[in-house]
Amino acid sequence: MRILVIDDEPDVLFLCRVNLQHAGHEVLEAPNGERGMELAATDRPDLIVLDIMLPRLDGLSVLKALATDPQTQDTPVVLLTARVQAEDQLRGWRAGCSEYITKPFSPLGLTDTVQRLHDMTPDERREQRQQALARLEGRA
């Protein structure tokens, strides 16, 4: 699977690259939102791991753009971020993420999440998003 990791922290990029490659994935990297958007358009990754706090173009803006583009709208996006507040999580799920993981994170957990999301259909990912939103909004 081809995975695009968009994060401005070199240590996070390294940790993701090493663990995802060890699991057999091809890893593309972008240090900011603009470059991430370019790679998403040209290299068409199977899944994207995205930080929220990025230079040039923040992660939520990237996520919203990906979710509205017919070529990338079904690409699973994992938000991997230090933003832990429920309000931040709500914004991420509402913007269209497929999973929300907070830093610090388990590299093995990320690898498992990537595989689980890849195995799901777009409809199953949408249902998971709706369930997460219901939990966070107190409807569950």
Describe this structure in words.
The structure is a single chain. With 140 residues, the chain is an alpha/beta fold. The protein has a single domain (2-136), classed as Rossmann fold (3-Layer(aba) Sandwich), CATH 3.40.50.2300. Helix content is 51%, strand content 16%. It contains six helices and five strands, in the order βαβαβαβαβαα. It has a five-stranded parallel β-sheet with strand order 2-1-3-4-5, with helices on both faces. Helix 1 links the parallel strand 1 and strand 2. The longest helix has 15 residues, at 122-136. It is globular.
Question: Which short descriptors sum up this protein?
Answer:
five-stranded parallel sheet, alpha/beta, Rossmann fold, 140 residues
